[in-house]
Amino acid sequence: MVEIVVENLFFKYPEAENYVLKNINLIIKEGESIAILGENGAGKTTLAKNLNGLLKPTQGSVKIDGVDTRNLSVAKIARKIGFVCHNPDHQFFAETVEEEIRFGLRNFGFPENEAERSIREVLKTFGLEDYRFRNPFQLSGGEKKRLAIASIMVWNPELLILDEPTIGMDYAQRLNIQRVLKKLVSEGRSIVVITHDVDFAASLCERAIILSKGEVIGDGCLRKLLSDSEVIEKASLKKPFLIELEEELGFSIMEEDFDEICDFLTRVFPKCHS
Question: Per the confidence metrics, is the pTM higher than 0.85?
Answer without folding.
Answer: yes
